[in-house]
Amino acid sequence: MVPAAADKSAALAASIRKFTYRARRSEGGALVKGVVEAHDHAGAVRELRQQGLAILSVELGDMAAAVGQESDPARLRRRLSKAMSKDDVVSFCQQLAVMLRTGVPLAESLETYADQASKKDVAEFVRLIRTDVCEGEDFSAVLGKYPRVFPALLVSLMRAAEASGKLDEMLARVSKDLSKARRTSKQIKGAMMYPAIMLIVAVLAVVIIMVFVLPKFGPLFKAQGDRLPAPTKALVWLSSFLRTGWMIYGPALAAIVGGTWWYARTEAGRITVDTLKLRMPVLGHMFRCLYLVRFSSTMATLLSAGVSLIDVVRICREVTGNVHYTKLWILLEDRISKGQEIAPTFREFDFVPRNVVAMIASGEKSGRLSEVLEHAATAAEDDLDIAVKSTTSMVEPIMIVGMGLVVGGIASAMLLPIFNMSKNMRPGH
User: Which of 111, 299, 371, 408 is 20 to 30 Å from 176 by CA-CA measure?
Assistant: First the structure.
């Protein structure tokens, strides 16, 4: 009987788990953090309530282990925040908006979202946000701690929502805007994906022909000696160089790629890249439409939420992400601080369409700038759809023709010696 009792005691001891908790004391409301041991979550809650604590959160397992292992809480927050993707942010705003609209408190909404999150780190990250909110911090201030996760647009709208008491409406609006921005970004990437794949396929096809196929014709080409056509001689030399000269072109290619990457990160490189985005013959119109959608929709949303114009301009500087637009926003911020109108500043930059400038001037005079910008954003989205489709339709035939010329040229250079041999084998030659 003694061994059986001992085994039972050991089993009970093994089933005891540690829970980290955050709570407030009933007297004075002081914040208390610690670890409590219990068989399950309900037992931990009962134990804390018996101590007269108002429970904020009780976490088990990975979170407790993470807190114990991480000596730096800031590092833990950074690690968990990396799990929150842009799609997760959109889902986060959408679901919170629905729950708040139906009367669910913010803390409970955050806990509900964490419970149904598909990724464990996302769930723990949202619980960290919930804990900060329960400890008395503003929701906008908590989101503002993670600028890489939550955009400035979202933080500013939450700040305006807290002042107006319309958190659910603002979350619904920002989720719609973020969803549109996400869809636009995917649309641009999708438009660029096809040409990129075509280019990769073309390069691989050329490399395979030059390295593996062309050497098979070596004896035939060698038999003709100096009678080889000039294109074939060049092709044979290039094939030999690709197979034997990798110690030369390998480091050279690495240096070119590394130098290009380094240059693109310099101020001069960023200016060059951003200028190309606005001025390229085929892609330039698409990028101009993209930037127009970004700043017009952002300005419309923030102004309608009651955010001051100078704060709107500062946020737009982050949204556009182009050095030429940055110059526009810096100049605009300076002139707004001096009490000047904004339309003349837009008119000075030729990458802002004249019709949009006219709409801004009209909205500014009538006091309906947010409505006018919203219409401009809708029209710009339609223009962007057309620009993406037209760009894709133009790039596809260009890539196909380019591939045909390269592969056809290689095939012609390979077949020229064979044609010459058949011509010399005819009677009379």
Answer: 111
Q: Which residues pair with 32 in a beta bridge?
A: 23
Which tokens is 37 given?
């041991």
Q: What Rg, from alpha-carbon coordinates, does the chain have?
A: 32
∠ Cα 176 161 299 (to 5°):
55
Q: Is 8 helix (H, G, I), strand (E, B) or coil?
A: helix
| pLDDT tens digits, 34-43 | 777 777 767 7
Tell me the C-alpha to C-alpha distance, in Å, between residue 55 and each of 24, 41, 115, 135. 7, 12, 17, 11
Distance CA 106, CA 112 (A): 10
Whether 33 contacts 69, CB under 8 Å: no
**Cα→Cα distances 128→36, 182, 232, Å:** 19, 25, 67
Can you tell me the distance from the alpha carbon of 37 to that of 18, in angstroms, rounded to the nearest whole number? 5
Distance, CA of 71 to CA of 53 (rounded, Å): 26
For 24, the enclosing helix (H) or strand (E) is strand 17-25
Beta carbons of 341 and 144 less than 8 angstroms apart: no
Q: Of 256, 287, 260, 258, nearest to 274 (Cα)?
A: 287
Question: What whole-number percentage of the chain has pLDDT above 70?
Answer: 87
Cβ-contact 172, 101 below 8 angstroms:
yes
Amino acid letter, residue 132: D
- On the CB side of 12, CA atoms within 13 Å amount to 6
How far is the C-alpha of 381 from the C-alpha of 179, rounded, in Å?
A: 13
Q: What sections of 209-245 are H helices per DSSP? A: 218-224, 230-244
Counting every residue written for the chain, the total comes to 429
> pLDDT per residue over 182-232, tens digit each?
887 777 777 777 778 888 888 888 888 888 888 887 777 777 666 778 888
Give every CB contact of residue 1 below 8 A, 6+ residues apart in sequence: none
For the chain, report the end-to-end CA distance as a whole number of angstroms.
112
State the residue for tokens 């908790």. Answer: 21
Alpha helices in 135-229 (DSSP H): 139-144, 152-164, 167-208, 218-224
The Cα 290–Cα 232 span in angstroms is 46
By C-alpha distance, which of 259, 292, 180 is closest to 284? 292
Measured over the CA atoms of residue 96, residue 101, residue 102 and residue 105, the dihedral's sign is positive
Contact by Cβ (8 Å): 112, 104 = yes
